[in-house]
Structure formats: C-alpha cells, structure tokens
Amino acid sequence: MTLFLALIIIAIVLGIIGATVDGLLFLLVIGIVLFVADLIYITMRMRRSAHRRPVR
Length: 56
Description:
Low-confidence stretches: none
Transmembrane segments: 25-44
Keywords: Membrane, Transmembrane, Transmembrane helix
Protein name: DUF2207 domain-containing protein
Strand content: under 5%
Organism: Streptomyces gelaticus
C-alpha cells in the first residue's frame, strides 16, 4: 500500500509541475501514464488477494 500511495503522490506532483511550467508538458503526460499504471497495479493486486481469502 505504501508503494501505491507513493506512486499516486509522484503522479500528482509531476502532473501539477507539467501543467504549470511552460515547456514541461511531457511531465504531465508522464504523470498521467504513471497514474494509470498505478491504478492497474492496485486493481491487479486486489483481485489476486481476494482469491486467497478463505470463505468462513
């Protein structure tokens, strides 16, 4: 979960810097790609852990 939160914070910071600083639009794109990759990562992790729990 720490990795997930760290990547979300990094994606937000890169997005803000890329959107505000002139000429650094590529940082905005990197932030968006990182955010989407992070969402895919957490989705896959939750699906995998949901199958491991025994039904009681």
